[in-house]
Design a protein that fits this description.
The structure holds 2 protein chains of 2 kinds. By secondary structure, chain A is an all-alpha fold. Chain A is built from 7 helices and 2 strands. Chain B is about 35% helix and about 25% strand. The chains are: A mainly alpha, B alpha+beta.
């Protein structure tokens, strides 16, 4: 891997995170469906975790969360904490289970949206927002999760398209490696001493 | 090799969590003029032109999505408004006579006609909105302290109250809407007795506003107009000037009024589809933060 390739993933993720937050604030948040606005950022963080692994997922989650908190003048650290967990656990799911089912991003997107909405509400309650918990609030939380679930697959496809080609074990890289090294990765290559 | 990777991953994770907790703790204990708030203010100032550009560029997309919801809602609203129009036409004749008399009497007493003449009305563009509107309902506009905007300035749109300015950077500000859970507005219902109460949003359905603390036997009817109360005491003054229209009563159930002392109100301003709002910049003498509700 040469120097430019090494920076490709961080650069693409930085651009993805910046555009996600700007588009979210400037346009997506102003569209309401059944009274709730759509939140793309947890879906993007979960998708990055699923595609790139736990460490990039956690770092990306922290950065996007911090950017959201700064840009929206919210209490710093709240969204970062939630998004670190989302990015990390999505990445761990990929590393431990490597789920191949096509609907995995749907389940992960639903879980990420649920965690973000419920976690954000709990954090706000703990930080002193005084609001009674009602059935209406729970209904809105459920609607938000449903909308997040519906958008999970297209968002995952979009994120995969953006980071494609720069992932450490990207299928295209594997094909290229197979062509040049006979199918063995440098890690798999038997050493001369053994 | 594997152990090293695991250790590195855990170390980074712990580091990120610790940094987040430090930021959270530091920010929570800080005052509005402290370093972290200043950094936020700087970032908002830098980002606001980018957000403004993105907001303008993506307006057609927003409008397209808004069109679907608007069409469904418009049909219901049309029927309600037709019924309301018929009722109001009956009242108009009587009111016109009253307005004429009122104008003559005010002329005699030399009273300011609506109390808003002292305010400079600045029209600003909405450039952003937080994604989570369940517990934080705010919007970002493209004017800040350089345009004379100050914390506490009232904000109106579509002829109705929208909220007040809660954060100011040099070229951008945040407006906390009347649908935010932290919002409370002292209001007056324009019924026969002019009952006063406190306007708060319903949690989970912010567009359903509640006027609370009303008299148990208040004679309030559907379609009654609710306006800002604009109280003033020796210690506190409301953020909002009096008589700004806020909403119409949508449900006034006598049983609910007797038990919970509240009626339901729909805001006049379309708070979910705002592209422009007006900030009422007060006279320079009234600088500083003002109270939102009385003690």
């Amino acid at each position: 891997m040469n120097g430019i390739e090494g920076y490709q993933l961080p650069l693409r993720l930085a651009a993805l995170g910046f555009l996600t937050v700007v588009i979210q604030i400037a346009a997506v948040s102003q569209i309401t469906v059944f009274g709730v606005s759509v939140d793309l950022s947890p879906l993007v963080v979960a998708s990055v975790g699923l595609l790139a692994g736990s460490l990039p997922g956690a770092v990306f989650g922290f950065a996007v969360g911090l950017f959201v908190d700064v840009a929206l003048v919210q209490t710093l650290g709240v969204t970062s904490l939630l998004f670190i967990a989302i990015g990390y656990w999505a990445g761990r799911l990929r590393e431990l289970r490597d789920p191949a089912h096509g609907l995995t991003p749907l389940a992960v997107g639903a879980a990420a949206t649920a965690f973000a909405v419920v976690g954000f509400s709990l954090m706000q309650f703990m930080l002193g927002v005084r609001a009674p918990v009602s059935w209406l609030l729970l209904r809105q939380v459920v609607v938000t999760i449903l909308i997040g679930t519906l958008l999970a697959l297209p968002i995952y496809a979009l994120v995969r398209r953006v980071v494609q080609g720069s992932l450490p074990d990207d299928p295209r890289r594997r094909r290229r490696r197979a062509y040049t090294t006979g199918g063995l990765s440098p890690l798999q290559r038997p050493s001369a001493g053994r | 090799m594997y152990d090293k990777q695991v250790r590195r991953r855990r170390a980074v994770l712990v580091l990120l969590v610790v940094v987040s907790l430090i930021l959270l703790t530091a920010y929570f204990g800080e005052s509005a003029g402290s370093p972290l708030h200043s950094v936020q203010r700087g970032v908002v100032t830098v980002l606001s032109p980018i957000q403004e550009g993105a907001s303008r560029a993506l307006k057609p997309v927003r409008d397209l999505f808004g069109w679907f919801g608007d069409t469904a809602r418009a049909k219901t609203e049309r029927d309600q408004l037709k019924a309301q129009r018929d009722r109001l036409l009956e009242q108009v004749a009587g009111y016109q006579v009253a307005v004429q008399e009122n104008r003559q009497l005010r002329g005699l007493l030399q009273i300011d006609s609506n109390g808003l003449d002292a305010y400079d009305k600045r029209t600003v563009r909405v450039i952003g909105r937080p994604p989570n509107n369940l517990l934080l309902d705010r919007l970002q506009v493209d004017a800040g302290s350089s345009a004379g905007v100050r914390i506490g300035d009232p904000v109106v749109a579509d002829g109705g109250l929208v909220g007040h300015v809660s954060f100011v950077a040099s070229d951008a500000s945040f407006v906390t809407l009347i649908t935010d859970p932290s919002s409370s507005v002292s209001v007056k219902v324009l019924n026969t007795t002019g009952d006063t109460g406190l306007l708060k949003p319903s949690v989970g359905d912010p567009l359903d506003l509640l006027v609370q603390l009303l008299p148990r036997h208040a004679r309030i009817r559907q379609a009654d107009i609710v306006v800002s109360g604009g109280f003033r005491t020796t210690r506190l003054e409301s953020l909002y000037p009096p008589n700004i229209p806020i909403g119409r009563v949508t449900k006034a159930d006598p049983e609910e009024l007797a038990s919970d002392q509240q009626v339901h109100v729909a805001p006049i301003a379309d708070l979910r589809h705002l592209d422009f709002v007006q900030i009422l910049i007060g006279p320079s003498g009234s600088d500083g933060e003002r109270a939102q509700v009385g003690p």
